[in-house]
Amino acid sequence: MAITGRSDKAEGKIKYGMVGGGEGAFIGAVHRLAARMDDHYELVAGALSSSPEKATRSAKALGIAADRSYGDYEAMAAAEKARKDGIEAVAIVTPNHVHVPAARAFIKSGIHVICDKPLSTNLKDAIALEKLVKASGLVFCLTHNYTGYPMVRHARQMVADGDLGELRIVQVEYPQDWLTEPIEKTGQKQAAWRTDPKLSGGGAIGDIGTHAHNLAGFVSGLDLDSVLSDVDTFVKGRKVDDNVNVLLRYKGGAKGMLWASQVAVGNENNVKLRVYGTKGGLEWHQEHPNHLHWFPYGQPPQLLTRGSPAANAAAGRVTRVPPGHPEGYLEGFANIYTEAAAAIRAARSKKKPDKAVIFPTITDGVKGMAFIEAVLKSSAKGGKWVKLTA
Amino acid sequence: MAITGRSDKAEGKIKYGMVGGGEGAFIGAVHRLAARMDDHYELVAGALSSSPEKATRSAKALGIAADRSYGDYEAMAAAEKARKDGIEAVAIVTPNHVHVPAARAFIKSGIHVICDKPLSTNLKDAIALEKLVKASGLVFCLTHNYTGYPMVRHARQMVADGDLGELRIVQVEYPQDWLTEPIEKTGQKQAAWRTDPKLSGGGAIGDIGTHAHNLAGFVSGLDLDSVLSDVDTFVKGRKVDDNVNVLLRYKGGAKGMLWASQVAVGNENNVKLRVYGTKGGLEWHQEHPNHLHWFPYGQPPQLLTRGSPAANAAAGRVTRVPPGHPEGYLEGFANIYTEAAAAIRAARSKKKPDKAVIFPTITDGVKGMAFIEAVLKSSAKGGKWVKLTA
Amino acid sequence: MAITGRSDKAEGKIKYGMVGGGEGAFIGAVHRLAARMDDHYELVAGALSSSPEKATRSAKALGIAADRSYGDYEAMAAAEKARKDGIEAVAIVTPNHVHVPAARAFIKSGIHVICDKPLSTNLKDAIALEKLVKASGLVFCLTHNYTGYPMVRHARQMVADGDLGELRIVQVEYPQDWLTEPIEKTGQKQAAWRTDPKLSGGGAIGDIGTHAHNLAGFVSGLDLDSVLSDVDTFVKGRKVDDNVNVLLRYKGGAKGMLWASQVAVGNENNVKLRVYGTKGGLEWHQEHPNHLHWFPYGQPPQLLTRGSPAANAAAGRVTRVPPGHPEGYLEGFANIYTEAAAAIRAARSKKKPDKAVIFPTITDGVKGMAFIEAVLKSSAKGGKWVKLTA
Amino acid sequence: MAITGRSDKAEGKIKYGMVGGGEGAFIGAVHRLAARMDDHYELVAGALSSSPEKATRSAKALGIAADRSYGDYEAMAAAEKARKDGIEAVAIVTPNHVHVPAARAFIKSGIHVICDKPLSTNLKDAIALEKLVKASGLVFCLTHNYTGYPMVRHARQMVADGDLGELRIVQVEYPQDWLTEPIEKTGQKQAAWRTDPKLSGGGAIGDIGTHAHNLAGFVSGLDLDSVLSDVDTFVKGRKVDDNVNVLLRYKGGAKGMLWASQVAVGNENNVKLRVYGTKGGLEWHQEHPNHLHWFPYGQPPQLLTRGSPAANAAAGRVTRVPPGHPEGYLEGFANIYTEAAAAIRAARSKKKPDKAVIFPTITDGVKGMAFIEAVLKSSAKGGKWVKLTA
Hints:
Chains A, B, C, D: Pfam families: GFO_IDH_MocA, GFO_IDH_MocA_C3. Chain A is of the alpha/beta class. Chain A has twelve helices and 14 strands.
């Protein structure tokens, strides 16, 4: 019963800046807390808001020195690059349309990037950024945070170890209900930008569908071959999709379905993943993330719990507290930051991080955008199988 | 806290016969128990097996007089029609390919029919039988037994009462795992006929997919417009489908997905239905049938329990015991028989049964066959939207 | 996937009568349905109500011949004894104070007895009846129906097989909420007699506490050594207890707690049993009776389901339908009747029933009354350990 | 959907030191993470281990300057008091027997104390410390961390608002299984000191029983009048209790039971609280802490979820992320630290903290010790009702 796999301050902290995340933002505060949890990061710079007053106020509240609070990400990238004590990494937590240009600016300045998802508002931009990132050799971490949950890691390892046999079926879903009514018209800030196609690049498919897609791929280890979808906007006047039904065909023959909805009344963040193979099945619910249901064929179902003797090494290295004391969303998110920290530190000495270090990369971001484009295309064609191009 | 809605022997019992259901059969015993539960029926005749020895032995074990144990359904229909004390109803519990010819024989003999599902092995036969049944004025009850669960009735009534507002989404699934391996090759009788397309007319789609389709329609009150499917046979050498993914489009604009599988390891009879509208959502699991989860928009989820003050009249009239004392599969199945009994008794005096009496009819059977055909056609075409023709 | 352990009509049916269970009664209808489920019994006589009109009307509704509807149990016992086709068994489903005198009348007439619980309103009467029953050699079955659930049988067998090691802890509870308010003052019939100490002999302790006590003993195989209790009546003016907290000491050293309440808001029939030994633990909930949670020490928890390959023979022989199709309260109750039928049939040929046949007996009834007396005595003394005398 | 009630750096951080928590310790790392989560604290000093080498190594790993790593708490208290930039608060995370002497040293030095539970190894010491703390005017926070969970706060507010009516019943339990076998003999450090009565002052009763006692009192708002217990040591050779059954009598008439066990196989940290009143009931499970089950009398059960519109203000102010993204043990623990920070900051300006600020105090610690003493005394007397003296 000890906290495992964590050293509070193994080396000097990673000084980082943030783009977005000022007053009224949601995900920025989550990123800051995730960065702080294992004490690997220190926030020292920011371009926190496009409104100068908000940016200044937010920076002060967060203890950022006045001369490192910037009006925009370009100024920030340039100035921080020029400083001897400039930031080593940046967290980009803006609406989606800013992800690529901001990331480009920092990559060009030699600064590692941790970026919220989805990667961009279109596939083309994503692919272009991927080239730039790969050429740079810098760390690029995309915060598909559900991959940070210990029992998701456990599940992935079980599949990789062959415990499920050959995979046949993947069922994944991410229903919410917060957009059941047109609250974007009421001025709710989160709803407003997420339903504006220029800022978000899509609705449920991008906001949560990509999480579901990424999670299924992460655990199953499978790549999508093609999708066939039925995309809807149930709320009148809404400019983006709010319910997406998708048939999935994976390379190698597994089949599946994906459902993402923001109008399914009674669902908060009800991510559920089920994977079935010839020898067993797995089921995981994000709202009870410390439990993994394991169904070995012909034997009684087992409940695998985080921190218990049954949890494997892949789960154990991202586990903080003993079984029965639940970890949650923030711990999972923090695991992504801590994994990225390992990669950033390895980069200091031009090394690759240890093999056990796992976090979603630019390539996952490109795959996510390819998924979005294929889903929207399939539905636009009236329901055709569309191959993924990445 | 009293048993409601049941009178043990309101009138004379309905004398019935059975086709199929002899030694080694499964569903026949369920039908007999369901018929017996509320004491409305008495089994007096049978063509229990195509093997004369089995038929005789089975009849004796069930207390059927020797002269009313028949070698086949045609002899039975003819002889029972000729008797003064002939059967008033017949239960057909054979493999699917016998449903239609047997039903035809009894309908032509003026005998009410209670028939297992699916109705037939093809749509054409189903439609022909529907015409015959309608012309006869006889009762035809198809045992889509999940519609007999009290909280399914409750859910249906809530939708009908508008509690969910306008429906948007239907998610229904029926995963099992008993055909994960090719047990039909081991001589397992249930597996053998259910995977023989001549006897069953299809695999998972017919055996359990039609249950899911029927349940979703029963609760939502919606008719399917069209389907788009991806049908698989994962077990090598199997002659029928064992995993079916379907996109659903309902008349009026609701969308949905249906999953039926017999190779999803860890699932027993894991029927789950979720329906979402503009004002609320409902969730029901067959394996915990006494509970209905109700999600009124913007308010806390409620747990509605069978027999409790919260249960509506539609649930109450098919409820036997107080809340917290679970009812199960057999009680739900018995409700179908008891509803059919009400219809048969009304028919004695040329009346229609009370409006509250509900059971699946020949028309539901035709819809089910139309569903099967559309699903198989869609997949055969490589994934096209196919309209339902019934 | 077949119904196991059931033959519909192995031999001639057992003709039985009923004392109590007329119009407005609750448990009588449950007994009739339980008797009917496996087709071993036929109801042919009754003393269904102390009101002659009700008795007559009820008998007619149940198809009992007019000359076998009796005004009281003594007349019934005498007349049925005298008939050549007299009843072979009687079901006593009256308020508690009638159990012993009615049972005595039928035992003296050579008629087997199936009796509702608790056995009596005091220990002395129970012991006297036990002597009479033992001397008679007749079958006496007490309907502690929870012992009829398949997974309760499974649990009992696991303990007996040593799977849990040496038992240390028993936690059992039976909370309800239906007496949260003084509904006995509103004329509610069930509440009225159950809260009248002359008719019931006690409140929660007798009505549900004895069920909890019996269930814990049945599964654990342990006998109580002594109890220490705190008995309350929370509802003003109520004449019997409605909440009982008890410390348990079992022979051999296991310890436990028992809670029975009829004022715990939100509980329907929330029976829960937990048993822990040196090698494992078990947990069972009556409201989800098809599941048994098994905790082998140092290994992941397992979910054992009725009808599955994991279910042992003790569960299998009282199982009707395959896993995932839930059985409930009535099936469990019916198992008691079917077990009693096996004993009655064995008695026809002066044999003992097969060892696998299990049902609660007069001795369990005496133990239950000893438990009630000890609990009430302990609390009356202000909280002392009181040894059980039976 | 925004993080509420958190400002990252409202004022200057609270510089704190730590006693205990060096290499191999468990709870120290939890305290540090809890302190860090909302960025109110900075660790700058420590007496982390009684072993000088461990203390030095641990301090270095945690970034504590060499001159502020002390050999013992007395040296630390003296030196920090003398520094201009000395610590404002100290976290005491040692085995129990050090709590009181260490706290005394810091209180005497004018330093606020955050101390792990239970407060001491005997009631007398606890009372003496309480006097000292009260006279000092300093903040003393005892980390009964379960009171930091948002839905526990919600439950407490509901009770205080009268939603449950008059309370009748409290059922609380804290089963674990990690001491099922005598692992203290294997050198497992946590097991070793926790089962050494000199270091811990007691077994399950102190380690987890006090958590259960505190939680029940926190939510119910009730004070214990008296207890009656049955205390056991099931593991041979163990020097402290490992299973405790307790009957509870609260002032005002509510009754209850408390169970704490470290040998209940299959339980991790399975804290469960149930409270029932005349108008409703509540149920909360620590292993699923974001859910609170609310049972309004006569109405369907409701599921109240953290972060949802149904969550009250008491829950909302300690909530970080939106509903459906689970918070866990560390967030709850951090809430205690953040509440203490508010009190410490108020103390800077000689003010009382806002009324909404809640954390367990020295008085809760004294009550906990009174509870332990009464429980052990009751059992030692063979089971007598023992009044609590604090």
